[in-house]
Amino acid sequence: MAVAQHLVRRLCVLVACTALAACSAPPANRVDITAVAPTPASTELPTAATGSYTVDCGRDEENHRNNDNLVASPGVHDGAHHLHDYVGNLATDAFSTDDVLAAAKTTCRDGDQSTYYWPALRLGGHHAEVRTPDSVRIVFEGSPVSKVVAMPRFLRTVTGDAKAGPTGLPTWTCAGFTDRAIRDYPRCPAGSRMLRVYVFPSCWDGRSTDSPDHKAHLRFPTANGSCPHATFPVPRLRIEVGYDLPPDTEFSIDSFPDVADRAAASDHAHFIDVRTDRAMADLVSCINQGRVCP
């Protein structure tokens, strides 16, 4: 009888925790980044575009956050089912049109009205405190094999897999160890900033600003850095989002409710290019000339 009562009480606790979405412990598995093997550096050909263009858009000091996803679920409020952090365009939500984005203010110092966003980081469970990043670095890079061409304005894209599927890329690393990345939450050495690094696809089909799966129009380069047939290299977007957390801090990303344990492998990011044609031409020129801008 006592055993039965215990099981009933336990079931009640589990039901209450599910209803409140507050009792599940944050993921406990962490991977020591110092034990991860470095990724070999790619070889650059003489025809490579070796420049870079860095954009300072702040770190979401404005607390621009919502549960929308203009890229994946346009016109659907709460279409993401999880909270996103934004930098750049201040008008971004599920209902933003191209005209709205083009007329909006931005957090980017160079006037870039593009929107950049990713799942918020929480210090605990789904309803725990949201942690504002301590740093956000946005840089457009070249190609290791050829010059790049301009992105079209209002190009939309995504990197990663919000469902933690096999197509998701490793995004987690630590400052001082960016030559290695994992799909698990990392354990960083004391004093090393935890980083989420998003590398976006950079081979454009030359026609579309979007596609039904938001991926087919913009693909990743092959292993040697060249673009697949009938695609053209555009500037490669790389975003580094950093957090200074004490070693024992519990954290996890906000994720779809059906993603088990708020898996680190569900990390992802989105980008909409709203840079003017002239500004994009300047960015491409910088990269192709091998300069570091600004």
Write up this protein.
By secondary structure, this protein is an alpha+beta fold. Helix content is 13%, strand content 23%. The protein is built from three helices and 19 strands. The strands form five sheets. Strands 10-12-16-8-2-19 form a six-stranded mixed beta sheet. Strands 3-4-5-18-9 form a five-stranded antiparallel beta sheet, with no helix packed on it. It starts with a helix and ends with a strand.
Mean pLDDT: 90
Helix content: 10-25%
What series of H and E elements makes up the topology? HEEEEHEEEEEEEEEEEEEEHE
Question: How many distinct beta strands?
Answer: 19
Number of DSSP helices?
3
Strand order of the largest sheet: 10-12-16-8-2-19
Strand content: 15-25%
Number of structurally distinct domains: 1
- Radius of gyration computed on alpha carbons: 20 Å
* CA-based shape: globular
* Main beta-sheet strand count, sense and barrel state: 6 strands, mixed
Q: Any low-confidence stretches, pLDDT <50, length ≥5?
A: 1-26
Category from helices, strands and their pairing: alpha+beta
Measured distance between first and last alpha carbons: 73 Å
